[in-house]
Amino acid sequence: MPDERGYLVIFEDDGWRKEMGRYSFVGQGVFQAWSDPQNDKLSSFRFKLPVGWGLRIYKHRDPKKESHLWVGTGKEESINKDGIPKFLHDEASGHGWVPV
Q1: Residue 79 in contact with residue 10, Cβ under 8 Å?
Q2: CB of 94 within 8 A of CB of 57?
Q3: Using CA atoms, how far apart are residues 94 and 33, in angstroms rounded to an integer?
Q4: I need a labelling partner for 6 at 20 to 30 A (CA). Which of 23, 41, 45, 74 fits?
Q5: How far apart are CA 98 and CA 82, in angstroms?
Q6: What is the Cα–Cα distance from 58 to 32, expressed in whole angstroms?
Q7: Which residues sit opposite 48 in a β-bridge?
Q8: Which bin fits 27, alpha (ψ -120 to 50), beta or left (φ > 0)?
Q9: Are 96 and 59 in contact (CB under 8 A)?
Q10: In terms of Cα–Cα distance, which of 73, 97, 99 is closest to 8?
Q11: Residue 28 burial by CB count (10 A; 0-12/13-18/19+): exposed, middle or buried?
Q12: Would the CA dihedral through 66, 73, 16, 85 be positive or negative?
């Protein structure tokens, strides 16, 4: 079961199938590079974050490179290819938690 404070679950399939990893929200702007089995395969994800926090997904394993921000609402959000910018779909390599 995901951490109720916040989490990210990433999937290889656009329909939230083929789970690749689960990450618990740790706050404090932590960046997490994804391992090779997860790298460049993101097609959908689910996340939950407290209000005031955001999820930033990065194209590369470098937090100074291209990324996109999703803002936490306190509820679970489900994002597939329609909600993932083209530069990240099947290209993402890491994520970070950021205060907004």
Answers
A1: no
A2: yes
A3: 4
A4: 41
A5: 23
A6: 10
A7: 7
A8: left
A9: no
A10: 97
A11: exposed
A12: negative
What tokens does 40 get? 């460049």
Q: Which two tokens stand for residue 32?
A: 């997490």
Structure tokens at 56: 């930033």
pTM of the model: 0.90
Residue predicted with more confidence, 4 or 71: 71
pLDDT in tens, 5-61: 899 999 999 989 899 999 999 877 778 999 988 888 999 999 999 999 999 999 998
The alpha carbon dihedral of 74, 86, 22, 63 has a sign of negative
Tokens of 77: 């959000």
**pLDDT tens digits, 86-98:** 999 999 999 999 9
Pairwise CA distance, residues 13 & 62, whole Å? 24
> For the chain, what is the total number of helices (H) and then of strands (E)?
0, 8
Domains and CATH numbers, the chain: 7-99 (2.60.20.10)
